[in-house]
Each structure stands twice: as C-alpha cells, then as structure tokens.
Design brief:
Blueprint: E1 5-10, H1 21-30, E2 33-38, H2 43-56, E3 59-62, H3 76-84, E4 89-98, H4 106-123, E5 127-132, H5 135-142, E6 149-151, H6 158-166, E7 170-173, H7 184-189, E8 198-200, H8 226-237, H9 241-255
Parallel strand pairs: 1-2, 2-3, 3-4, 4-5, 5-6, 6-7, 7-8
The structure holds zinc ion.
Zinc ion (ZN) binds near residues 94, 130, 152 and 153.
Length: about 260
C-alpha cells in the first residue's frame, strides 16, 4: 500500500507501548501510516511525547487533559510555552472538558481549558480538543477565543456536530465509528461531516476498532489499525478508501501547517 495516512491522535507515551515503539512504528509504516500526532495529556506525557517525536521524526501536542486539569499549577503557561518552542509541537492539548468521568472538578476543568485556549491564541497555535458530555460549556468557552483546531474523538450528537462545524473546527473520528453498538450515532453522522473537515485517528492504545479481521489477540490498539477507521468512513460515505486517506492527510497538513 502506498497511500499515505496520518494518524491524528496516538498516545505513544502510554506505558502499553513501552519497549514496543520500533515494532509499532514499523507496522504503522507498512500500513501506510507515515505521520502521526503524539498526544500529551499532562506535562510529563507532553515531555515524553516530545522526546518520542524527536527520536522518530513525528509531531506532537503539549497540554493538560481535562482528567488531569487538577494537576495544573501556576507554571502551566511557562511550561507549555517552553514545550511549544520545539518544532515538533504543532498544537496545544489535549485540553477540554469531560463531564462524563469528572476526574477533575468541573470549575477546574473550565479554568484550565481557558488558560490553554488563551495560550494557543497568544502563540497562534491550533488546539487539540477533548469533550465528553460537555458540548454546551465547550462551545460557550470556545466563543471567548479566536482559535482553530480539532475536536478529537467526536462522539456527540447532531446538534453538537453542527455547532462545532459552524465554529470552523475539524472533527476527529476514531475507531469508535467501528463499534456496532456504541458507535451507532456516530456512524449515522459521518455523512454530515464534510470530508474537508475530517481527521482520522486511532487514539491508540485505546479504542481498538471492532471491525478488525481476524480479531487481534491483544486489546491494545495501534496506529497500523488506522486503515480500519479509514475504510469504515469510506463505507459510510459511499466513497473510496483512497479519497478519505488523501483528503484527511491534506486536512492534517493544512490545520497543523506541516508540509507533505
Ligand atoms: Zn480525548
């Protein structure tokens, strides 16, 4: 396969990939996944993602996930600015709101999101957004800032989708779309997402696509399985795999200002 895919969200610094980076990246390259965005969820994983990105010529984000919002301290802006000064860092995030798990208090989540949006605006960088059961607050807060970005791993409803699209955001779709049960709503919304605004991501090691055949022995997802996300979207849109692959790669390059 020669079609170049970009995995717009990989948690490569997750311990599940420890000592497996080379083989995982090799399988990704064999599957056509030539570029990937490594996700930082807190300062430590942002630093680890940056080191991995440097070592393997990849790209990464720097930020604090809403789950970890309570770990943000007064030096957050300073630490993220330092990280973002490296050319491999192309977005601020993963940042956002998660009212589904509530691992950090909601007022802390909102405050830490606002600080990262303000920083992204100052640095003129895109944001990598996470939102679960919080689209009203997310949209209200986004309206306070002038930022571009991607709403990663979208799992919301039609109204939220339309409002995010009106806001000019890209929509990240993961292997959630390959789940015949909990992915049903997302599957029905795929035709409503313009191909020009779509990014595809695995969110590995999480969200193993349920369409993989034969079913892998390990539950660990990895970037080489991005092809299953791409194929599922092509099937739902009634277009070719190569069309989805080409356009999502182009979208990634445009949003994050990277050359092909
Ligand atoms: Zn997320």
């Amino acid at each position: 396969m020669t079609i170049e895919l970009v995995d717009a969200g990989v948690n490569l610094s997750n311990h599940q990939f420890d000592e497996h980076h080379d083989e995982v990246l090799q399988r990704a390259a064999q599957a056509g996944v030539k570029q990937m965005l490594l996700i930082g969820c807190d300062i430590q994983s942002s630093q680890a993602s940056l080191q991995l990105a440097k070592r393997h010529s990849l790209l990464c984000t720097s930020g604090i996930h809403p789950h970890d919002a309570k770990t943000a301290d007064i030096s957050l802006e300073q630490q993220l600015t330092l990280l973002a000064s490296h050319p491999e860092v192309v977005a601020i995030g993963e940042c956002g709101l998660d009212y589904n798990r509530d691992f950090s208090p909601r007022d802390v989540q909102r405050a830490v999101l606002r600080r990262q949006l303000a920083l992204a605006e100052t640095l003129n960088m895109p944001v990598y957004l996470h939102e679960r059961d919080a689209s009203n607050d997310m949209l209200a807060i986004l309206n306070e800032y002038n930022v571009k970005g991607v709403l990663h791993c979208f799992t919301g409803d039609e109204l939220a989708l339309q409002r995010y699209l009106e806001k000019g955001l890209y929509i990240g779709v993961t292997g959630w779309v390959c789940d015949e049960r909990r992915g049903e709503q997302l599957q029905s919304l795929i035709p409503s997402i313009p191909l020009e605004r779509l990014l595809i991501e695995t969110d590995a090691p999480f969200l193993l696509p349920r369409t993989i055949k034969p079913k892998p022995k390990s539950r660990r997802n990895e970037p080489s399985y991005l092809t299953y996300v791409c194929q599922q979207i092509a099937d739902l849109k009634g277009c070719e795999f190569t069309e989805v692959a080409k356009q999502t790669t182009l979208n990634f390059q445009q949003l994050f200002s990277v050359r092909g």
